[in-house]
Amino acid sequence: MLQDCWDNLRQKVIHHLNLLAGYETQPVLRGEVVVYRTSGRSNPAKSTAISLYSITRADENTGFGKLSREASLRNGKKTKHDGVETTTYDVVFYLEADFGTPGAIAVKNRGRREFLLKSVTLEVSENRSVHFDCNSWVYPIIKTNVDRLFFANTSYLPSQTPAALQSLRQEELASLRGNGRGERKEWERIYDYDRYNDLGDPDKGLHHERPILGGTRSYPYPRRCRTGRPLSNQDRATETRKKIINLDFYVPPDDRFSPVKLSEFISNSIRAIVHFVIPEVKSVFEGSIRNFESFGQMRKDLYSSHRRSILEGVVMEKLKALVPEEFIKEVVRVVKENPLKFPIPEVIATDENAWMSDEEFGRETLAGLNPAVIRCLERFPPVGRGGKVSSITASHIEKNLEGLSADQAVELRRIFILDHHDYIMQYLRRINEQGVCVYASRTLLFLRHDQTLKPLAIELSLPGDGKGAEINRVFLPASQGGERALWQLAKTHVAVNDSGHHQLISHWLHTHAAVEPFIIATRRQLSAMHPIYKLLDPHFKDTMHINSLARSILLNAGGILEMTMFPGKFALEMSSAIYRNWRFREQALPLDLLKSVKFLGALPWRTPANPPASGFASKTTPTPSTASTCGSRSRRGSPTTAPTSTPTTAPSPRTSRSSHGGTRSAPSATATSATTKTAAGFLSTPSPTCPKP
């Protein structure tokens, strides 16, 4: 109350001083200030002032644009912008006659809490306005020691920047780069580089130690934004983690979630817990991570409207130790409201076993969870690292090539490969020593005349006894008896590998991690006025905050990814080995397009000796790219539709640690015990970790 009285008195005093000085008889510039409404934050109108920098007249003493007198926010009224609750204020500036056009604003927050400034619009004439898109947090000046600077939306190259703004532009960039020292505070806007040295927690013991990724030949990796947290007592190169779940890792204010986005993130996280994570956590805490009850129970957990109580006993107690209290309360509230389950995927809506068919397996290599790995086979048999030749032979596949020889099918670009062999083999022995059972895999698929992909053969591999030695076995399609069960198990192992690659490589490494250093470089090197900055900025939105949360709860030692994906504690280390082959030039046109054309089949496979199947026009030249949209046939022969953002296939069970809802095929057994019995015939020689194929 006392603060409110003081602020009102201050505004009245300023008003009367302006009258006495004759300022309010000078040119008037009116504007509108929009602030997001956030709970628990102070009202910025009581303590916020804005000044303008001229774009046409420079101050001889500072070299900056001429600075106007401060103006306070007035007449706040509740509004909405794009469905989001905001408060809109009026602001009035009294300017000197030759002030010119404003090109930047300085916002001073004299309050005690930060607020999220959306935009400022100034009416400089009857038909002209200057707009400032801010969308950033403004912290109290008692913390920042400087006003918050925003530039108008007009773009300028460095050489074209008005003289009155050049010094401001350079000073702003210098402040964003920092000096690489000290722990970052939440109000600081500093973009500096660091390695991934916060994944492990060595103070908890050897089991929580993880290698530092980035900066060495052994573990290359993209850079992340530096936080500067204190170092571990056990390892002076690893940053400490204050809590089990750290939701407060430093993220610069310009790249932090808005309250709406944060609320959306929390809501989605809660739904993920209710729908999926809790059953996973339950299996982890109850010691049954390698088992599942049945496919029927999995469908019931994910899609059925009938749910069992899953937040009781040990699971609830463990969650209380992992997440903040308000988060637990929200989980309980959502559970009590009995939210809807995931919609039933179309592929199993009429036939619960349709997802197990070879046609669906082939379709999802292009239209499923991870379409980024499939490639056109360039030579047969496939050759891996060190020149090792695959054990798949022509006799394995030629009976399913529609009359072609293996060499002819390769030449016509009708054989494709899903290769999860070389990168897994490097870590496979250590992965399986964790008590899981994973195989490296190669899968060959054939593009048929009906434009569907059909698996030809699957090769599963384990490390052999000698250096570089391998143990391989090839599995072929089968529809009856024990051979059918073996084939389904082989497809399950491929699905495990493909799901792990999707989450760890295609999604995390190639999408999130690889882009963060470009965000940092853009903020450090390009002014907000630069046209390239304005082009890139929408694509960077929220990425750094998401990556920070990923390091906090997904990628860390003992995090969700290690608990649910097959590489376990070697997941991030394995992604570092794969990053070694990542090349920036190959991510953009024209090389990216050339790779796609090369791998997905640039040449038509139709020849005079192999006319198109009946039903196709004579001018049609089917290619794998069209096969991805034509759809395959389900087990009953009915067309299936391409997946949308909602998974379109039922999840297959996890083999060992891997969780892959929405992946492809799985064994036909309906319970873990049945699967184990089938596996006994599948695995010829027992082993303490993973039996030989």
UniProtKB/TrEMBL annotation:
SMART domains: LH2 (SM00308). GO terms for biological process: fatty acid biosynthetic process; lipid oxidation; oxylipin biosynthetic process; response to wounding. Residues 617-680 have a biased composition (Low complexity). InterPro entries: LipOase, LipOase_C, LipOase_C_sf, LipOase_CS, LipOase_Fe_BS, LipOase_plant, Lipoxygenase_dom_3, PLAT/LH2_dom. Pfam families: Lipoxygenase, PLAT. Residues 155-595 form the Lipoxygenase domain. Residues 207-236, 610-693 are annotated as: Disordered. The keyword Oxidoreductase applies. Its EC number is 1.13.11.-. It is an enzyme of class 1 (oxidoreductase). Pathway: Lipid metabolism; oxylipin biosynthesis. Its cofactor is Fe cation. One of its GO terms (molecular function) is oxidoreductase activity, acting on single donors with incorporation of molecular oxygen, incorporation of two atoms of oxygen. The keyword Phosphoprotein does not apply. Keywords: Dioxygenase, Fatty acid biosynthesis, Fatty acid metabolism, Iron, Lipid biosynthesis, Lipid metabolism, Metal-binding, Oxidoreductase, Oxylipin biosynthesis. Residues 29-152 form the PLAT domain. Belongs to the lipoxygenase family. Plant lipoxygenase may be involved in a number of diverse aspects of plant physiology including growth and development, pest resistance, and senescence or responses to wounding. This is Lipoxygenase. It comes from Musa acuminata subsp. malaccensis.
